[in-house]
Amino acid sequence: MILTILFWSLLIILFYTYVGYALILWFLVKIKKSFSALKKIANEAGYQPDVCLFVTAFNERDYIQQKVQNSFQLNYPQEKIQYLWVTDGSNDGTPDLLKQMDDRLEVYHQDERRGKMHAMNRGMKFVKAPIVIFSDSNTVLGKDSIVEIVNSFSNPKVGCVAGEKRIVEKESESAAGAGEGLYWKMESWIKRNDSELNSAVGAVGELFAIRTELFEEVETDTLLDDFIISLRIAQKGYKIAYTPNAYAEETASLNVKEELKRKVRIAAGGIQTIFRLKSLLNPFKYGILTWQYFSHKVLRWALAPLSLFLLFVVSVFMFSDQEIVARTHFYALFLYLQLACYLVAAFGWYFENRKMRVKVFFVPYYFVMINYASVRGIFRYFKGKQSVNWEKSKRA
User: Fold this and answer.
1) Which tens digits make up the pLDDT trace of 204-250?
2) Comparing C-alpha atoms, which of 154, 215, 178 is closest to residue 369?
3) Average pLDDT in the 34-54 region?
4) Mean per-residue pLDDT of the chain
5) Beta strands 140-141 and 51-56: pairing type?
6) Rounded to whole angstroms, what are the CA distances from 55 to 95, 104, 120, 207, 309?
7) Which residues pair with 140 in a beta bridge?
8) Maximum CA extent, the chain
């Protein structure tokens, strides 16, 4: 009986996390649209507030020229953009190169490296515009990204705007590229529906914006600055708008090993975020946002990865119980299904290491890998071994 209860509990957690929540969300958005057309507040004629394009960079010399060129090509009056860079800790010539490139670039540098959140807290003191747009140095923004972000801020209830992250896909893709690309397409779909129903749940550091007045200094040991900043604004009663037409493009991780480094850190940061934002789990105070946050993030960060591997262990124990097997063949069949899935993932691992591009095996491999990374990240967080400084992943 205990094994049966545990089996179904784990299976329900996994199904709800990866399928059920998306289906319920889609259904609720359909209902909302049928009863009241989703109104989009029109942008005021000529509404073009000053904005600050804020980039933190640590040893990003290889990406500087591309990023600066992209920044100057964005479809928005340049005289209304403050180009602000914080390069704390960089020792590869990044700050000097930026200062030589263009007088419009404001570069703030200190030799000591104290983490991205410390650099963001420091840099916010130099922001002069009412809207600040955060972006990573290794991403390329869509030309109309600022226009789309500004349009979203026409709604006074919006305190944060989350842009879309897009993975540049290549024909000869690794498992990391194939899996990461699919992951972000699915994540974007869920975010769009989250936003249409109520509010997006967090933002990604590649591209997001906030009202400058809503920023409050964040603990400098924070691992996921984008989630903490955006969700704390949501806690104040503002909406996080999701604008897919404002997007940031970047290449996938070079390989699964490099992607693993990112995912372990993100998982550790996810657990930290759950503790930092524990008050957000109060549905009596935050209502539907609590349900969205728990379903979209807490389950995926904390419970689903553990449930995935624990379900296999429970299935093995149930298969070894002759009484259970004799009563129903379902548990045996489900164990065989899991074994088949792990075998396909193992083929993905094999082909990846042999540099053989067979995409049908890459997605299962990527799924198992990111859940394994999440489990490692959970343990790393509780051991206190996750550094606040990013260990950069190599990109394709």
Assistant:
1) 999 999 999 999 999 999 999 999 999 999 999 999 999 999 999 98
2) 178
3) 73
4) 89
5) unpaired
6) 12, 14, 9, 10, 39
7) 249
8) 77
Whether pTM exceeds 0.70: yes
40 contacts 151 by C-beta, under 8 angstroms: no
Tokens matching residue 68: 């600066």
Write the burial class of residue 261 (CB in 10 Å: 0-12 exposed, 13-18 middle, 19+ buried). Answer: middle
361 contacts 347 by C-beta, under 8 angstroms: yes
- The pLDDT score that the predictor gives to residue 2 is 87
Do 370 and 263 meet the contact criterion of CB atoms below 8 Å apart? yes
Q: Does pLDDT of 169 surpass 80?
A: no
Strands 140-141 and 239-251: antiparallel
| Token pair listed for 227 | 């989630």
CB atoms within 10 A of CB 332: 14
- HEC string of the chain equals CHHHHHHHHHHHHHHHHHHHHHHHHHHHHHHHHHHCCCCCCCCCCCCCCCEEEEEECCCCHHHHHHHHHHHHCCCCCHHHEEEEEECCCCCCCHHHHHHHHCCCEEEECCCCCCCHHHHHHHHHHHCCCCEEEEEECCCEECCCHHHHHHHHCCCCCEEEEEEEEEEECCCCCCHHHHHHHHHHHHHHHHHHHHHHHCCCCCCCCCEEEEEHHHCCCCCCCCCCHHHHHHHHHHHCCCEEEEEEEEEEEEECECCHHHHHHHHHHHHHHHHHHHHHCHHHHCHHHHCHHHHHHHHHHHHHHHHHHHHHHHHHHHHHHHHCCHHHHHHCCHHHHHHHHHHHHHHHHHHHHHHHHCCCCCHHHHHHHHHHHHHHHHHHHHHHHHHCCCCCCCCCCCEC
Residue 257: predicted pLDDT:
75
Q: CA 225, CA 239: separation in Å to the nearest integer?
A: 18
